[in-house]
């Protein structure tokens, strides 16, 4: 449904790994052999999916052996009544998406990197993305996992059951653990029925307060058919225009909002949506808007939002922050930073999954500069911590953010995380130097 | 929205605890003191919420000290834009429900025991219930927990953020762990907006195949407004009539289905529902049906389904099974058992959350009999294991089912569970003899 993005190398410009060995197993058994071998010999391993992660989690820091899921791309089964898909971890998200859509279902997860990222990588990072608002977290939609543990043991929790309360839910340990507790080799995921009607509205708002009020109005009036509520500021639009030559489809505004509805009755949905648009245009919450109902126009509107990452990476060096914040303070940080940085930054932009309280804050500059970094950090993290926000809403910690965990989690939590790591990976061979803070 | 049930003592007839001490702390600090004290002295503890659990998890086996959340019933905060509710673990589900409904939201969880069960107990058992089909698992809707660990450490993961990928998601360890890994003292949960239109249809189906086809039709035609799909067989209806004097609202049929819709547009929903009813009545999938749109009638119809547990307990001794099974084989087990037991059982009934593949299979007899038990077990578990089902879909394992875990989980999973238990509760003071199998 959304546009493919171009190669993402620039995003990862700061992390060039130096591994001499890249292994591409085809089966869980092969992964088990590799880990058993590495475990015996104390060799460190970096699991790698599509390598689209934002925090340097899948690239080796020193000489870790890369275990890539690139060849583990088989669909195991799909049940066309229940919508349960079982597949190997290396299946590319977009391919899974196509596969289940042909059968009347959708993958409950969608993101700009879909053309490259693997479902195993998505699960390992607990990816959020564009459908989170509607279908919720992978913690609810992933039904089962097969995981190879550090010592090569295959842990089969690959159930396809919607409900299973027999003991502790072990798969949760591996969702979002970024390859530090085990290698995910297969995934069972519940796909919801494909909505028969999809609409996208792209709106211009005069201020952030109006963006928030538009969100509240929208949730009330569109209710259960609302499937995405994304926002971007005028700076984002400028960059998307400048670097990708995408035209703004509405009057220039300080803020833009993309609303998607997905429902089972085209007529009903259109009626709800037009009632909503009348309301927000009439009350001045929205100054201009456009509506798309056909695939091509829908893709075009989504591209504006999805290709921001790409536009940013063409603008220069990018400092990236992915934060959860209380809605009413969400944009204040962007304004604060803009004032704080003045001419030291090229652009300070804010966009993201507003419906989930998730801000992507990005700062571009001609080149990396330690002094700019010093102005940004720990300022951004301290600001976020004061709002009791999260310093990593969906991207995880990986290598780049592992030392900021303490801004969002208390010491008792950190200690328990370290105990879990020691339990599951006593030799520390799984993705070392990632996720957990450097011990001091 | 649903009817209250009467006291549930008969359900727990087989487990009468023998504790001499019952503590009712008011704060997390008090819970921490209790656990610190018990931990130092190797005293075992049984956490207890509303005591409505089905598997004897909250009653002491020997001399465990009961730590009840009965007095921890304060609401901490409610945010009326985001719908995030933060409260102490001892809040009664129905009271929370009333509180948030007055503010335009609903708790994403509802079950027959709502008048007595505590939110902490719900989280500790990872309860499923009647809204699971619509709002999904507590693993997605619970945003944060505060937990007191075995040694009295307070673990504060009580975030209110929709998304937070800073490290391992520790709260997941405690969801569904039935008080064996920590005592939940506070819960943060995301409440969805209250749907403005609710309808309930109660239908009679000529056979189980028709029940399944009705489900598929319904999912296709009602889509995102479908909020519950429950079924019960003719035996259930008989018992509800016999013991509770509730009248069947439609023509007598082999099976009954209760469908609830919840949406934001009354007119649209009614239209979708009547289109669906026309379709299923016209095609013979449904032989008779009734529709309720007002609160009183809706409650009346829900009572038929929700009070089955109560009717069963008045029928005699009840053997209870709570299974996840593939939809197409779900009812075969009930038929098989009926044939197998013949006159040895009073009644063999099947009902449950069909939309989630969850069968409640219950057998009643005049009194407990080891020979009847021997005919039922391990037959039921083996049957379920052959279908790769779950021997406990939503009720958990507690004391009664802990030794059947192996029918649904491989030895590697069991071992990791035991390691987690040893890590979090090295002295084994938290709800001993529960959830994990007796070591042999
Ligand atoms: C344009 C763009 C848009 C994006 N949009 C979003 C978004 O909306 N929401 C979001 O959450 N993220 C987003 N991301 C980030 C990224 O795409 C996701 O984190 C994605 O889930 C990573 O998948 P991957 O296969 O590329 O994993 P990789 O980058 O290869 O790996 C990510 C981490 O997971 C580990 N890992 C990978 N595979 C496995 C495995 N099989 N077993 C164990 N560990 C493994 C790696 O070691 C690493 O720590 C975006 C990225 C880009 C470039
Ligand atoms: C009529 C009826 C209908 C039901 N319907 C459903 C249904 O639809 N779906 C469903 O899933 N269940 C259902 N149940 C089962 C039961 O209601 C649920 O399991 C409920 O969530 C238990 O809550 P409680 O507060 O009564 O917990 P309790 O019974 O007191 O305890 C249950 C378990 O949780 C532990 N526990 C309780 N509180 C805490 C805490 N604060 N911290 C740590 N551990 C704790 C206990 O030690 C015990 O192991 C039903 C029960 C009845 C009687």
Automatic annotation (TrEMBL), chains A, B:
Catalytic activities: (R)-malate + A = oxaloacetate + AH2
CC cofactor: FAD
Family of the protein in this entry: Belongs to the FAD-binding oxidoreductase/transferase type 4 family.
MF (Gene Ontology): (R)-2-hydroxyglutarate dehydrogenase activity; FAD binding
One Pfam family this sequence matches: FAD-oxidase_C
Enzyme class: oxidoreductase
Functional note: Catalyzes the oxidation of D-2-hydroxyglutarate (D-2-HG) to alpha-ketoglutarate. Also catalyzes the oxidation of other D-2-hydroxyacids, such as D-malate (D-MAL) and D-lactate (D-LAC). Exhibits high activities towards D-2-HG and D-MAL but a very weak activity towards D-LAC.
One Gene Ontology CC term in the entry: mitochondrion
Alphabetic keyword roster: FAD, Flavoprotein, Oxidoreductase
Entry protein name: D-2-hydroxyglutarate dehydrogenase, mitochondrial
Organism encoding this protein: Neophocaena asiaeorientalis asiaeorientalis
EC number of the protein: 1.1.99.39
Domain FAD-binding PCMH-type: 14-194
């Amino acid at each position: 449904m959304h546009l493919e993005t171009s190669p993402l190398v620039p995003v990862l410009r700061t992390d060039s790994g130096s591994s001499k060995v890249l292994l591409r197993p085809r089966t869980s058994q092969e992964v088990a052999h590799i880990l058993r071998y590495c475990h015996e010999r104390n060799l460190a391993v970096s699991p790698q999916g599509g390598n689209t992660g934002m925090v340097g989690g899948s690239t080796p820091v020193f000489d870790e052996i890369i275990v890539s899921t690139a060849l583990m791309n088989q669909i195991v089964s799909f049940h066309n009544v229940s919508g349960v898909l079982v597949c190997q971890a290396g299946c590319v998200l977009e391919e899974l998406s196509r596969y289940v859509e042909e059968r009347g279902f959708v993958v409950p997860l969608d993101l700009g990197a879909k053309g490259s990222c693997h479902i195993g990588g998505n699960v390992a990072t607990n990816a959020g993305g564009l459908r989170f608002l509607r279908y919720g977290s992978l913690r609810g939609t992933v039904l089962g996992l097969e995981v190879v543990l550090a010592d090569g043991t295959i842990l089969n929790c690959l159930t396809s059951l919607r409900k299973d309360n027999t003991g502790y839910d072990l798969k949760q340990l591996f969702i979002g653990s970024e390859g530090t507790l085990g290698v995910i080799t297969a995934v069972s995921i519940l796909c919801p029925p494909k909505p028969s009607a999809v609409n996208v509205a792209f709106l211009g708002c005069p201020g952030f307060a109006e963006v928030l009020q538009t969100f509240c109005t929208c949730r009330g009036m569109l209710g259960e058919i609302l499937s995405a509520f994304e926002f971007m500021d005028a700076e984002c639009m400028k960059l998307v225009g400048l670097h990708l030559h995408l035209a703004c489809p509405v009057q220039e505004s300080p803020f833009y909002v993309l609303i998607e509805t997905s429902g089972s009755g085209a007529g009903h949905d259109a009626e709800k949506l037009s009632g909503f648009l009348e309301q927000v245009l009439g009350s001045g919450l929205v100054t201009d808007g456009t509506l798309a109902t056909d695939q091509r126009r829908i893709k075009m509107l989504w591209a504006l939002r999805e290709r921001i990452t790409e536009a940013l990476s063409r603008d220069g060096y990018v400092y990236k922050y992915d934060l959860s914040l209380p809605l009413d303070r969400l944009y204040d940080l962007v304004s604060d930073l803009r004032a704080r940085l003045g001419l030291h930054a090229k652009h300070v932009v804010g966009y993201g999954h507003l419906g989930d309280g998730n801000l992507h804050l990005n700062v571009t500059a001609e080149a990396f500069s330690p002094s700019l970094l010093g102005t940004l950090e720990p300022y951004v993290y301290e600001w976020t911590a004061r709002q009791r926000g999260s310093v990593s809403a969906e991207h995880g910690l990986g290598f780049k953010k592992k030392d900021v965990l303490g801004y969002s989690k208390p010491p008792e939590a950190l200690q328990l995380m370290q105990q879990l790591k020691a339990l599951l990976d006593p030799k520390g061979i799984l993705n070392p130097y990632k996720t957990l803070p450097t011990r001091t």
